[in-house]
Design goal:
single chain; about 200 residues; alpha+beta; 6-stranded antiparallel β-sheet; 3-stranded antiparallel β-sheet; about 35% helix
Length: about 200
């Protein structure tokens, strides 16, 4: 990844696996301003490098947020409050082991819609009006985005991000202390643990 790209991490709209003749597997990076860049790395390599930049342990994060969602595969991963990557299937792999999934940044997504395309069943539309087709059904994509919203809320409470983002839905008009947020976080963990245990009885 170039240094220029590093400086634009929070403006990433999507990371898409792609193939290029003579180069093999690459990653196409879409940005919120409509620009894009191709990186001579696999999608997995780019995600791992992002994880190092944001000091995110991908295995631990997948377990933690998978527990929140009650699932273990294709878990949305938050790197910051501005970068929540949601896995969605965008290509058919040419070789076994190649990734079929791209990663979409939740804050960059404006809406999704069904398509009449036989291959791409759903279109993901970004705030800059560009769009990317995915192979998954509208219902599946919608569910995955709702999962990402739950992960985002859990992340914001855990990292005390509610007050640092003007777009946050938390607007009570009253001052909220760090102690209040810790209390909310602990209660949320208790509720999640209770629901998780109940689900498995």
């Amino acid at each position: 990844m170039t240094e220029k790209l590093w400086e634009r991490c929070d403006s990433i709209a999507a990371l898409l696996p792609t193939y290029q003749e003579g180069k093999g597997r690459l990653t196409r990076v879409l940005f919120s301003d409509g620009s894009e860049e191709k990186i001579n790395k696999t999608i997995k390599g780019v995600v791992k490098k992002l994880a190092r930049k944001f000091s995110v342990d991908l295995v631990s994060a997948a377990k933690e947020y998978g527990k929140v969602l009650g699932k273990s595969n294709l878990v949305p991963i938050p790197f910051s409050q501005h970068l929540i990557l949601v896995p969605l299937k965008t290509i058919t792999p040419l070789l076994p082991g190649d990734s079929a999934y791209g990663y979409f940044n939740l804050p960059a997504i404006k809406e999704i819609r069904r398509t009449r395309d036989r291959e791409y069943k759903t279109a993901v539309i970004f705030h800059n009006k560009s769009e990317v087709g995915v192979f998954l059904s509208y219902e599946t994509v919608l569910k995955q985005l709702k999962n990402a919203e739950l992960v985002d809320k859990h992340y914001r409470i855990k990292h005390f991000c509610w007050l640092s983002d003007k777009s946050s839905s938390l607007d009570t008009g009253e001052e909220i202390t760090r102690r209040d947020l810790v209390s909310i976080h602990l209660k949320l963990d208790q509720i999640i643990s209770f629901l998780f245990q109940k689900k498995h009885y």
